[in-house]
């Protein structure tokens, strides 16, 4: 499942996990670039070469109905990277946080039920400003842990990122409006002149109608066919409305964000938000590993939970669940090494040997190492998995 992560402790954790037995992990058959490559049963096999370690988004899993949270103490002290010299913090307080007052269509008439009483906003469509700056991608400064290579700098312009992962309730609005096909060019990042947005050739990779989309979501199987579906989607609204919608393909995630007036974040943008910019946080809430990870900060090794249910784990800019709950699709194709220089960059052109898109953030079934802000996941864009969701970026 994971051949080499470049981090011996990760390998040890994975070797002792019940992932293969629980999920029946096998290899996916990737499709040609821009054509998806639906899985044929099992978790995506990650690339293992190159300077930056990557992780199977399904790797290191334990039982999704298990409890607790294993610890992952490594050394101490994360160093600050970049140019704005803002230091490290462990508080859930935010440096960004200005709310977008324009209500996206996915939240018209939707009750403000996300997060909890400690959250700064319970609006499920709250969008928080991420102040721009410079940082090192997939870097947290902990020597010997696999993410201490400052060779991939990036500069990010200010943008907005949704406070929460897209919920079932929000996605339901999209299904009600479906079939909605993004016009060519929709969902582009105006800060990136090379981003041309949605391609009309991707229309055929979306379900043909609302019934097909609903059925595909609700019947999303677990990795082990003997396990029941772990989809959060329900045909009729129920108690799942504030859970993150899962089982989304990259194309559906892109289409939703475009319909909702947003776009998929680039990997660099997502990483910047989770790392707290130049603070180079190890986890979104922590600049060091001086304290162990525990279930008060993230949804992991436990069932999927309501978005925003762990406010102590909010990132520097106020975003919830940047670690755990569901992996989040980024717009980029997955390359083993980052391209430099990077100014509002994204990997938008696929070579013949590239078949995966980027996922970030870890999921409810993962172990703590997969929640780190630096770690990368990858899967073919037509893959459905109970741990795959989305969070939209906006201008």
Structure explained in plain terms:
This protein has helices at 8-15, 19-23, 168-177, 210-218, 250-259, 267-275, and strands spanning 127-130, 133-136, 153-156, 159-162, 327-333, 357-360, 377-379, 388-389, 393-394. It is mostly loops and 395 residues long. The strands form 3 sheets. Strands 7-6-5-8 form a 4-stranded mixed β-sheet. Strands 1-4-9 form a 3-stranded antiparallel β-sheet, covered by helices on one side. The longest helix is centred in the middle third of the chain and has 10 residues, at 168-177.
Mean pLDDT: 77
Taking the sheet with the most strands, its summary is: 4 strands, mixed
Flag low-confidence runs: 1-53, 59-94
Q: Indicate the percent of residues in helices.
A: 10-25%
Strand order of the largest sheet: 7-6-5-8
Nearest-angstrom radius of gyration? 19 Å
Based on Cα principal axes, name the global outline: globular
**Helical stretch count?**
6
Report the span from N to C terminus: 38 Å
Tally the beta strands.
Answer: 9
- SS-based class: little secondary structure
Order of helices and strands: HHEEEEHHHHEEEEE
DSSP strand content: 5-15%
